[in-house]
UniProtKB/TrEMBL annotation:
Transmembrane segments: 155-177
Superkingdom of origin: Bacteria
One Pfam assignment: Cytochrome_cB
Keyword terms, alphabetized: Membrane, Transmembrane, Transmembrane helix
Protein name per Swiss-Prot or TrEMBL: Cytochrome c
Lineage, top ranks: Bacteria, Pseudomonadati, Pseudomonadota, Gammaproteobacteria, Pseudomonadales
Amino acid sequence: MVPHYAWFDGTVEYTLLEDELDLSGEPIEINHIDGSADDPASRIWPFKLMRGKQPFDTQLNTLLVTHVFGADDTSLWSNFNWPNALQAGSEMSGRPFSGEYDFVETKMYWPITHMVPPAEQALRCGSCHGAESRLAGIGGIYMPGHSGNAWLDRIGWLVVVMTLLGVLAHIAARVIFRGRKHS
């Protein structure tokens, strides 16, 4: 699984059953993660991005609860009857249901704090530090090997050359003055 990387400040906003959905911005975020490159409290986090379709009430524009399983004739896995399962789920959760429903595209972010691969499958440097890396979509940062800055590269190479010249000058001075005695 390749994670979805995003800025995260530790704050999550959830879409609740009573929240009216804005269907103009599909997919609906079941949970919205906060954070940005401009926020000093934010860090880049790996998430598992779950995509799906959820039932919603087309009259009330709210998400619906589905009665999924159980030994009764209203559970979805017993009868595969969406209207009955949605009516039962609404009654169990105390939420209204107009009887009219459809499905809406949704996405949900799960922090990757489990499903960590074994050491031999760990990421290598180039997985993040490269032009087409996993972090290619993250803005607001400078990352060596990923986002180039011509002046920074020139300064870096100048430091390397100056260091090499300093080492060579030191070697030359040691060779030239090696036979002299200290007084």
